[in-house]
Write a structure and sequence with these properties.
The complex is a heterodimer. By secondary structure, chain A is α/β, with parallel strands linked by helices. Chain A contains 16 helices and 11 strands. In chain A, strands 1-3-2-4-6-5-10-11-9-7-8 form an 11-stranded mixed sheet, with helices on both faces. In chain A, 63% of the residues are buried. In chain B, strands 1-2 form a two-stranded antiparallel sheet. Chain B is flat. Chain B has helices at 8-14, 21-38, 73-77, and strands at residues 83-84, 87-88. Chain B contains 3 helices and 2 strands, in the order αααββ. Chain B has a domain at 8-43: Histone, subunit A, CATH 1.10.20. The mean pLDDT of chain B is 90. The chains are: A alpha/beta, B mainly alpha. The interface between A and B is large, with 72 and 49 residues.
């Protein structure tokens, strides 16, 4: 079952010609056909296109192309429906873009194409990446492959569920407040949010531009390292991408972790609401790392309790500006009106879902005359303090370790009625985006009954991905959490 | 920064966002709750703190002002809800 293989293992089989790209792609398409009617990770499957790309990859290999220069040659991937792939739908999970086709490739898409990847299709998400459960998709929720009565996390819920259900080898997502790491934890896969500026945002539809970053969802840390190596780097088309060399992440994985210092922020472990099974698994993981020679150290991130409030001012404020472009004039839905103002309002009223409207209202309010200083400006100042907390901690430790989420995945519908309750799912992941640092979520255990994945989060300093990946890889090599697979079929 | 009564109707007009009466009522209540929560930030002494707009210490990134290929006219127009003569068509703006 080639769809169950990691990217690295699949790539080796393809290189040795023990398997063709067509077979690998077909195996994913079969898995999608079999499992996705229930999981609903995909919004669009490009079956013919994927097979054509696979055939092209097989032909290229026969002509002498190899994994040396094309590390993803023939590897079937899937992309969150917020990242542009030319001539493919780009809905962002929204009615307002239901018919929209991307006119160009995102820079990350171009990078994956150059590496030889095959694109299977488009993955479900919370509308415009706003949400923690994928229930805010205009096209219906994705379900958690471990228990289809539960949410997969969000906003990259389709990406995490597709990887967990072996419907693709790996996936791209985006992470503005935890949208890659939270679903990774909830679905039992690896999720990497690179440092702000590490990966180009060109072709990633903007939610909150100072926080957004393309992220990776994979079956192993090694796969995350390989994909990061492929997509990272400076891009003249994104002026916030940083001209810093991309280290060989894969080659660095096997360096020893003995002697590395990992900070345990006391604020993350004392806060109420940390599920006892999550706490237990994370404590076991710390002990495991300790047995590998890692030194746990208590650290303090004193402004932690302000992160969520800071985020829910800054992100909606930026979103309210970014989403002004959806006005019914140049593309997307249009609902006619007597004048342009009425047309804009009707189009947006009909095109946006509840959570997007909620955040546009909050953001518009926070930026409106008379409230700007009290809300937005104050939040930007608190953001400085949150970042400084991390920079201070990283003087003492190489990485910070926390649970990824305070609870295991919850039931569909459970938190829809109360926005604040939903926002609290992101309480451990949000600071990373505010601080602009990098974060990695990886499986570290399961709840007893039902069996649901638990994730831990490693946070690193700006451009500290090498250390995170090395720590994560060492942990993975010494445990088997990442090898567990969801039941083949649950519920109906 | 006590959470004041929020005039949702006015905010929605600023955002060019048509809301149903039910949505106005619902968002009004929810926004009140979120703003109550956000009051937490009043505790923080930020008098000497610089605001942070951005995580990357880059500023004024420029590029050569050179002509380069971009979307063609036809590609830029072909997803317009309404177009004619190579232009986007919108409702009448001036009488």
């Amino acid at each position: 079952m080639p769809n169950r293989l990691t990217v690295c293992d699949l790539s080796q089989l393809l290189s040795r010609r023990e398997l063709s790209a067509r077979e690998a792609t077909q195996a994913c398409l079969d898995a999608i056909r079999q499992r996705d009617p229930l999981v609903r990770a995909f919004l669009h499957v490009d079956e013919a296109g994927a097979l054509a790309q696979a055939d092209a990859a097989d032909a290229a290999r026969r002509r002498g192309k190899s994994a040396e220069t094309h590390p993803l040659l023939g590897v079937p991937l899937a992309i969150k429906d917020v990242i542009a792939v030319r001539n493919q739908p780009l809905t962002c999970g929204s009615r307002i873009l239901a018919q929209y086709i991307a006119p160009y490739d995102a820079t990350v898409t171009t990078a994956l194409r150059r590496a030889g990847a095959v694109f299977l299709g488009r993955l479900n998400m919370d509308e415009f990446a706003m949400g923690s459960s994928t229930e805010n998709s205009a096209f219906g929720p994705t379900r958690n492959p471990w228990d289809t009565t539960r949410i997969p996390g969000g906003s990259s819920g389709g990406s995490a569920a597709a990887v967990a259900a072996d419907e693709c080898s790996a996936a791209l997502g985006s992470d503005t407040g935890g949208s890659v790491r939270l679903p990774a934890a909830f679905c039992g896969v690896v999720g990497l949010k690179p440092t702000y500026g590490r990966v180009s945002r060109y072709g990633l539809v903007a939610y909150a531009s100072s926080l957004d970053q393309v992220g990776l969802l994979t079956k192993t840390v090694q796969d995350a390292a390989l994909l990061l190596e492929t997509v990272a780097g400076h891009d003249p088309l994104d002026s916030t991408s940083v001209p810093q060399p991309v280290p060989p992440y894969v080659a660095g994985l096997d360096q020893s972790v003995a002697g590395l210092r990992v900070g345990l922020p006391r604020e993350y472990f004392v806060q109420g609401g940390l599920d006892p099974e999550v706490r237990h698994s994370v404590e076991q993981a710390i002990a495991q790392l300790e047995s590998l020679g890692v030194k746990p150290v208590e650290v303090s991130l004193p402004h932690t309790r302000y992160a969520l409030a800071t985020y829910y001012l800054i992100a909606p404020a930026e979103a309210s500006a970014n989403l002004a472009r959806f006005d019914g004039v140049r593309y997307g839905l249009r609902i006619d009106g007597a004048d342009p103002i009425e047309m804009y309002a009707r189009t947006r009223g009909a095109g946006f879902g509840t959570e997007v409207k909620r955040r546009i209202i909050l953001g518009t309010y926070a930026l409106s005359s008379g409230y700007y200083d009290a809300y937005y400006l104050r939040a930007q100042k608190v953001r400085t303090l949150i970042r400084q907390d991390f920079l201070d901690a990283f003087k003492e430790v190489d990485a910070v370790l926390t649970p990824t989420a305070p609870t295991p995945p919850f039931k569909l519908g459970e938190r829809l009625a109360d926005p604040l309750q939903m926002y609290l799912s992101d309480v451990f992941t949000i600071s990373c985006n505010l601080a602009g640092i990098c974060g990695l979520s990886l499986p570290c255990g399961f709840t007893a009954s039902p069996k649901l994945p638990i994730g831990m989060q490693l946070l690193g300093p700006p451009f500290g991905e090498e250390t995170l990946l090395r720590l994560g890889h060492a942990f993975e090599q010494s445990t088997d959490w990442h090898r567990h697979r969801p039941p083949p079929r649950t519920g109906t | 920064m006590s959470a004041p009564h929020v005039d949702i109707h006015r905010i929605a007009r600023l955002a060019r966002l048509e809301l149903s009466p039910e949505e106005e009522t619902r968002f009004g209540a929810e926004l009140g709750n979120v703003l109550d929560y956000i009051k937490l930030l009043e505790e923080v002494d930020v008098r000497t703190v610089e605001p942070m707009a951005h995580a990357v210490p880059l500023s004024n990134v420029t590029r050569p002002d050179a002509v380069r290929p971009s979307l063609s006219h036809a590609e830029a127009l072909n997803q317009a809800p309404s177009q004619s003569n190579g232009l986007f068509i919108v409702p009448r703006i001036v009488e």
